[in-house]
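Structure first, sequence second, as always.
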């Protein structure tokens, strides 16, 4: 058999039930260690997600259907503080049970695919963890470095006996090749990764040769119809001959059932098909369960698909499964205790409501802590007299409606995790003036270009650009001209009052993701320190070492170039920012957008006038650029990945 016959015009309801057998494929993705319906950041129950709730739904479906498969699409061991507990805070030993694997074993998964975040804690931890699973972990495009040997099983063929006939279901796993950038510190020299579609074209025919009657692609990848899509290659994967159903993820979207992919040729957002292939993308954190029902016929030993139905089912209405609750409860309670343990005090409110339009306390704190760490570590070394800078971004600044919001008073571990979401490690890179300028130009893609001559309302934030890619660099002064096109926005870049030139060299504290090229800000620069210290721990130590309540003082070392316009230049942010707008010189509240979101206006022509008493001519950006100042870089490409490393 060379493949199955699919018809997008023949849904399951049109198939004759007397002549068909049903196979129900269930899929999870991007659980990110959210076992319980609990928001550890805010220390509160959240009934909209959790693998314990998914388990209840899975059992319901199994009670209704005789023939089922349960598959996971990766990113399950990292993402919440629950996962950090097992890997970093109180690490699980190689010979100890891993509660997430125990939970998956309890649910009876048939197979799982490695996601990009599975690699965040290193290969040893990953391999020790998945060895405790009672089911295969798959990846058809990760190879041992220097060989042609796959590191993991590329696929599994699962035998199902349906009405006395054997159905062989082939399941192939695939991961974005960008893990070589995002987790270079763990992977470089150990593995290499091929492209998703190329690998599928290699192994799907092998699966067919080995007797797979149907093939399910479980790809930790989203959907991008661009011809050269690599990270989110689900659209192109659907065109690989022999793939009969797909479980996608990585983008944290829901498919079918939302408009995220509407209007794309070949995608039916209602039927749940991509180029005719039934497909699901079940959100994140266990918010949904992907369900693909295949109606199969068997004629002379050959299976064909007579109809199908694709659905992403919400789990919010389901109760957590009591058996799994009992299983994870000890770690869950330990996590709650840990996140509420005190670190110190702050005399400053720390939030990211306006962090994408102005210098910000949260980013300032991260940069202050990283600079302090770097200065201490480079004291009495060859680097101690070099110019030291720090780069940080607002990680929780709008994606999924999430913002950092730590109020004045006591700071707990959960607050630091709210400030710095990811388990990155601190790295220091050496850059010259041109590379620094290019880094900032890439970050300036955070903004849409404003036409000051237009009187129409204009949005200033590029919401397609991830907030974790909006690095601001402490230690230099510069302005961003949002009236200019991409690559021509950074002006007045100075260090200690002198224009930055190509010959200047700087040490910049950042994280392993950015140092490895993540986000396309820098490429091929020298890493002079690749520490194993987490950026979060650096922040915790900085707060703990502070004498008395922490007072974060924003340096305002960067700002938007003032411009005059009759247009209303606006951005959306959390409604909680409305009172803050009353005390912010160049931001005002406009109107309520919905229950959680407000519309705010910036008045950049007022920023210089009202910000402080400094002479306007002496501000960064108001001096003419030095003749040797680096020019703009080429376009740096599209925004980087969803949360991983920044």
């Amino acid at each position: 058999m060379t493949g199955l016959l699919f018809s997008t015009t023949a849904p399951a309801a049109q198939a004759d039930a007397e002549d068909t057998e049903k196979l129900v494929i269930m899929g999870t993705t991007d659980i990110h260690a959210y076992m319980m319906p609990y928001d550890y950041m805010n220390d509160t129950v959240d009934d909209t997600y959790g693998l314990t709730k998914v388990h209840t739904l899975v059992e319901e479906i199994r009670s209704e259907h005789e023939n089922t498969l349960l598959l996971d699409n990766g990113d399950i061991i990292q993402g919440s503080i629950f996962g950090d507990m097992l890997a970093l805070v109180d690490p699980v030993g190689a010979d100890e049970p891993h509660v997430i694997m125990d939970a998956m074993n309890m649910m009876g998964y048939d197979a799982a695919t490695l996601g990009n975040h599975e690699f965040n804690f290193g290969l040893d931890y990953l391999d020790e963890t998945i060895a405790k699973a009672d089911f295969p972990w798959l990846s058809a495009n990760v190879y041992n470095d220097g060989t042609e040997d796959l590191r993991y099983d590329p696929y599994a063929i699962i035998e199902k006996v349906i009405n006395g006939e054997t159905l062989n279901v082939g399941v192939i796993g695939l991961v974005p090749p960008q893990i070589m950038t995002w987790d270079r510190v763990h992977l470089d020299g150990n593995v290499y990764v091929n492209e998703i579609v190329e690998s599928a074209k290699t192994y799907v025919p092998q699966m067919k040769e080995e007797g797979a009657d149907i093939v399910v692609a479980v790809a930790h990848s989203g959907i991008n119809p661009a011809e050269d899509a690599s990270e989110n290659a689900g659209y192109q994967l659907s065109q690989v001959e022999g793939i009969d159903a797909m479980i996608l993820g990585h983008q944290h979207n829901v498919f079918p059932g939302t408009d995220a992919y509407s209007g794309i040729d070949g995608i039916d957002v209602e039927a749940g098909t991509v180029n005719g292939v039934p497909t699901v993308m079940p959100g994140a954190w266990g918010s949904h369960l992907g369900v693909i029902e295949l109606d199969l016929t068997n004629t002379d030993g050959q299976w064909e698909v007579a109809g199908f139905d694709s659905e992403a089912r919400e789990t919010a209405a389901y109760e957590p499964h009591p058996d799994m609750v009992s299983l994870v409860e000890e770690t869950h309670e330990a996590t709650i205790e840990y996140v509420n343990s005190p670190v110190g005090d702050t005399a400053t409110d720390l939030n990211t409501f306006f962090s994408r339009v102005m210098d910000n306390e949260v980013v300032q704190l991260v940069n202050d802590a990283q600079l302090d760490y770097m200065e201490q570590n480079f004291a009495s070394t060859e680097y101690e007299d070099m110019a030291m800078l720090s780069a940080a971004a607002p990680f929780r600044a709008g994606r999924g409606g999430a913002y950092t919001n730590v109020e004045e008073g006591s700071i707990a571990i959960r607050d630091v995790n709210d400030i710095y979401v990811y388990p990155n490690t601190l790295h220091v890179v050496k850059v010259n003036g041109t590379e620094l300028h290019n880094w900032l130009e890439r970050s300036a893609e955070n903004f849409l270009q404003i036409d000051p001559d237009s009187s129409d309302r204009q949005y200033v934030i590029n919401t397609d650009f991830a907030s974790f890619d909006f690095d601001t660099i402490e230690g230099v002064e510069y302005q961003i001209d949002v009236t200019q096109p991409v690559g021509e926005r950074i002006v007045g870049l100075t260090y200690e009052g002198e224009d930055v030139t190509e010959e200047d060299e700087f040490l910049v504290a950042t994280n392993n993701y950015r140092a490895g090229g993540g986000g396309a800000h820098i490429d091929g620069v020298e890493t002079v320190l690749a520490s194993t210290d987490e950026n979060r721990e650096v922040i915790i130590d900085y707060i703990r070492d502070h004498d008395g309540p922490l007072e974060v003082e924003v340096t305002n070392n960067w700002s938007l170039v003032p411009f005059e316009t009759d247009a209303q230049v606006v951005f959306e942010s959390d409604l909680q920012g409305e009172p803050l707008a009353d005390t912010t010189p160049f931001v005002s509240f406009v109107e309520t957008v919905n229950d959680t979101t407000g519309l705010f206006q910036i008045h950049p022509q007022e920023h210089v006038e009202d910000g402080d008493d400094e002479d306007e001519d002496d501000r960064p950006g108001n001096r003419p650029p030095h003749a040797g100042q680096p020019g703009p870089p080429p376009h740096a490409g599209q925004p980087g990945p969803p949360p991983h490393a920044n």
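Margin note: The first strand starts at residue 21 and ends at 28.
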